[in-house]
């Protein structure tokens, strides 16, 4: 009886041991299979965004440049740029960032989105379609220097930083208020800076001047800050927001007096070249601007050429 019992026990232990070995082998195989799948799996961001770039207003400088990029880059063949509005683009960006979903936008500095999401990044642009660093220039109609020498002098001395402009835009966004309100608060807090622009400028008595601008928050910030500075000198200032093509046309034909919204050397190059002999270029009022295709930092992609053409 003891001998038979021992044999039975040995058989049971052997069967159990073989079962454990089989289970472990199966787990290791499954694990190896999963590890292999994970290591070989790469996110196809082009497919994830449906071969679509989320843009702003059609006809904007960055939109025109993006159309050129789609033509020039093999990696963007068959892609579509979905142009709508700056607000719509920002809304889509908010949704994507909240859910950590991929998105490719037409982006630029200065803009409040970079103040809100400072870890966004530009895709490298090996062909240089979007250019490098940009400046925003001040242009005046021919004859303004003679007609309004004091306004001309202040416009010529106006200069600020990317952080100044983005701060106003982000402040307006966070407080759900007009950019003009945030610009007024900025002037109150930075009157010493404004006084530097007014240095050597004489006051006037109600002389009218019109600033022509694009309807974007960046240019709303600059035009409203300068509007307040001119009003402190006694000018009656009107700010007229129009399409970028009309900005250049109105300064060239003298319908507007000045603009602070000329992005160069790439963004507004076509408009600038068309009217270059019909306005006075006062130089950069802001340096360090930039345009390009922008993605959230959680997207593991670095260059436009890392994208894939649509099938």
Report on this model:
The protein is of the alpha/beta class. The chain folds into two domains: 52-132 and 293-306, Glycine betaine-binding periplasmic protein, domain 2 (D-Maltodextrin-Binding Protein, domain 2, 3-Layer(aba) Sandwich); 134-288, Dipeptide-binding Protein, Domain 3 (Dipeptide-binding Protein, domain 3, Roll). 49% of the residues lie in helices and 18% in strands. It has helices at residues 2-40, 45-48, 61-72, 86-99, 112-116, 144-147, 149-157, 162-174, 179-189, 191-197, 217-232, 244-253, 269-275, and strands spanning 52-54, 80-82, 105-109, 121-122, 134-141, 208-213, 236-241, 258-264, 279-295. Helix 8 (162-174) crosses helix 9 (179-189), helix 8 (162-174) packs across helix 11 and helix 9 (179-189) crosses helix 11 (217-232).
Cα shape: globular
Round the Cα radius of gyration to an integer and report it: 30 Å
Regarding CATH, which class of the largest domain? Alpha Beta
Treating each run of at least 4 consecutive H or I residues as one helix, how many helices?
13
Helicity level, as a percent range?
Answer: 40-55%
- Name the helix and strand elements from N-terminus to C-terminus, one letter apiece: HHEHEHEHEEHHHHHEHEHEHE
Portion in beta strands: 15-25%
Let me know the CATH homologous superfamily of the largest domain.
Dipeptide-binding Protein, Domain 3
Proper CATH architecture of the largest domain: Roll
CATH fold field value of the largest domain: Dipeptide-binding Protein, domain 3
Structural class: alpha/beta
Largest beta-sheet details: 5 strands, antiparallel
Query: Total strand count, please?
Result: 9
Report the end-to-end length measured between terminal Cα atoms: 76 Å
Low-confidence stretches: 8-13, 15-40
Tell me, rounded to a whole number, the average pLDDT. 88
What's the domain count?
A: 2
């Amino acid at each position: 009886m003891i001998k038979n019992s021992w044999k039975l026990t040995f058989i049971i232990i052997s069967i159990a041991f073989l079962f454990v070995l089989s289970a472990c082998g199966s787990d290791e195989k499954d694990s190896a299979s999963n590890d292999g799948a994970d290591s070989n799996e790469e996110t196809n961001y082009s497919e994830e965004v449906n071969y679509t770039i989320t843009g702003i207003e059609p006809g904007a400088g960055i939109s025109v440049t993006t159309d050129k990029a789609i033509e020039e880059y093999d990696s963007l063949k068959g892609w579509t740029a979905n142009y709508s509005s700056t607000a719509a683009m920002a809304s889509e960006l908010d949704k994507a960032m909240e859910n950590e979903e991929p998105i490719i936008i037409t982006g630029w500095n200065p803009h409040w989105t970079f103040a809100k999401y400072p870890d966004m990044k530009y895709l490298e642009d090996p062909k240089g379609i979007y250019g490098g660093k940009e400046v925003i220039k001040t242009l005046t109609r021919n004859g303004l220097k003679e007609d309004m020498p004091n306004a001309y002098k202040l416009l010529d001395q106006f200069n600020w930083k990317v952080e100044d402009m983005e701060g106003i835009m982000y402040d307006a966004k966070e407080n759900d208020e007009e950019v003009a309100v945030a610009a007024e608060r900025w002037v109150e807090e930075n009157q010493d800076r404004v006084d530097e622009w007014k240095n050597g400028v004489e006051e006037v008595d109600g002389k009218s001047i019109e600033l022509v601008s694009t309807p974007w928050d960046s240019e709303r910030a600059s035009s409203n800050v300068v509007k307040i500075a001119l009003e402190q000198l006694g000018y009656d200032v009107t700010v007229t927001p129009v399409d970028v093509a009309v900005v250049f046309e109105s300064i060239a034909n003298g319908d507007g007096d000045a603009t602070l919204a000329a992005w160069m050397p790439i963004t507004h190059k076509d408009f600038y070249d068309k009217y270059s002999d019909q306005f006075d270029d006062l130089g950069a009022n802001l340096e360090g601007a930039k345009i390009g295709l922008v993605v959230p930092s959680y997207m593991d992609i670095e260059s436009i050429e890392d994208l894939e053409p649509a099938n």
